[in-house]
C-alpha cells in the first residue's frame, strides 16, 4: 500500500492538513470493500478526487469508472442517462441506448451532486443499491448490474430529508461510509502552498515568471474565507498571473482581486470576562467613528449654513425642515460614543447660534483616540508601518500623513 505522500503526488493533492490527510486515509481504507461511500463538503473543495482514489485502490480498478454530474442533467432525461432507454420510448429515442449503470457494470460510478436527483430517480437509485436491479426507460425488463456507487454532495442531506426533498431510506443507504472534505478556510496552512503551486503552473502555461506574495499579502490570503474554496483560489491565482505586470504582489494589490464582501468588519461579540476582547471591540468601534468623523463635521457645517441663510431671508416661524435639521445638529455625540455628554450647540428662539464649541471638542476627542489607535497599532507590529496600516484599515500613504500630522515618532 502506498503511503499518503505518494498518494498525494499521484493525484496532485496539495496540503498537509490533518483533516485532509484523514479523508485520504479513509478513502484508501474503504477502497477494497464494496461499501457505498458518501463524500460531503462545500463546493470547490475537490470532492471529485476521492472517488478516483477509491476506484484506483479497489478490486474494480481495471473496470469502467464513470463520473456523472447529476445536477448538470435535465430532469426529463436523467433516467435515460442513468438507466438507458428503449427505441421509441419517447420522442427522439431512435435506438436502444445503454445507461451509465449498464455501461459501468463491474466498475465504479461516481454520482456527483446526488442531492439534485429528482425523487422519482432517487427511488430507482435505491433499487439499484439494494437489489442491483434497474429497468430501462420504456422497458419492462429488469436488468442486473454490479456497480460500486460513490456519491458526493454539497447539500445538507439531513435537512433535505427533513424538507421532503431527499428520500430518507436512500440517505441512509448511500451514507454507509461518510467521508468529509474540509473547507479551504479550515486549512489555513495549505492556502499559501496551493497558491504557489497554482502560480507555478500558470507561469509555465503562460510562459512568464511566477507570481510571488509579500508577507502581508500571505496574511490576507490566509484570512480570507474562500467561499469557493480551492476552485476560487485557483481562479484568482490565474487572474493575478495574467493581469499583474509586477510579479511581486502586496496586500493592497491582492485585495483588488478578492470580493468586497470579505472586507467587511467582523461582527462584535460580547465577552465580559476578557479584557482583550473588550479592547478589540472598542478599537473596531473607534475605527468606524474615525470614518464617520469627517462626514459628520461636513454635515454640521452644511446645516449651519442652511440655518444661517434661513435666518437671514426669513423672520417668520421656521419650516419643518429647519426644525428637523436643528434637532440633528443639537444631538449630543455622547449618545453613540458612550461618553459623558459634552457641551452641545444651543439655539435660542431668535435663531441665533450661541456656541459651536461642541464641534471642536468632539473633533479633538476623536483625534486623540485616532492618535492612540495609531500608536497602539505601531507598538503591536513593532514599528512596521505596512502591518500597522493593515490593522488600522487604512493605506500606508494615509498612515504616513497621520504620523506627520500628529508628530508621532517611531
UniProtKB/TrEMBL annotation:
<dbReference type="Pfam" id="PF00158">
    <property type="entry name" value="Sigma54_activat"/>
</dbReference>
<keyword id="KW-0805">Transcription regulation</keyword>
<dbReference type="InterPro" id="IPR002197">
    <property type="entry name" value="HTH_Fis"/>
</dbReference>
<keyword id="KW-0067">ATP-binding</keyword>
<keyword id="KW-0238">DNA-binding</keyword>
<keyword id="KW-0547">Nucleotide-binding</keyword>
<dbReference type="InterPro" id="IPR025943">
    <property type="entry name" value="Sigma_54_int_dom_ATP-bd_2"/>
</dbReference>
<dbReference type="InterPro" id="IPR009057">
    <property type="entry name" value="Homeodomain-like_sf"/>
</dbReference>
<protein>
    <submittedName>
        <fullName>Sigma-54-dependent Fis family transcriptional regulator</fullName>
    </submittedName>
</protein>
<dbReference type="InterPro" id="IPR058031">
    <property type="entry name" value="AAA_lid_NorR"/>
</dbReference>
<dbReference type="InterPro" id="IPR002078">
    <property type="entry name" value="Sigma_54_int"/>
</dbReference>
<dbReference type="InterPro" id="IPR025662">
    <property type="entry name" value="Sigma_54_int_dom_ATP-bd_1"/>
</dbReference>
<dbReference type="GO" id="GO:0005524">
    <property type="term" value="F:ATP binding"/>
</dbReference>
<dbReference type="InterPro" id="IPR027417">
    <property type="entry name" value="P-loop_NTPase"/>
</dbReference>
<dbReference type="Pfam" id="PF02954">
    <property type="entry name" value="HTH_8"/>
</dbReference>
<keyword id="KW-0804">Transcription</keyword>
<feature type="domain" description="Sigma-54 factor interaction">
    <location>
        <begin position="13"/>
        <end position="242"/>
    </location>
</feature>
<dbReference type="GO" id="GO:0043565">
    <property type="term" value="F:sequence-specific DNA binding"/>
</dbReference>
<dbReference type="Pfam" id="PF25601">
    <property type="entry name" value="AAA_lid_14"/>
</dbReference>
<dbReference type="InterPro" id="IPR003593">
    <property type="entry name" value="AAA+_ATPase"/>
</dbReference>
<dbReference type="GO" id="GO:0006355">
    <property type="term" value="P:regulation of DNA-templated transcription"/>
</dbReference>
<dbReference type="InterPro" id="IPR025944">
    <property type="entry name" value="Sigma_54_int_dom_CS"/>
</dbReference>
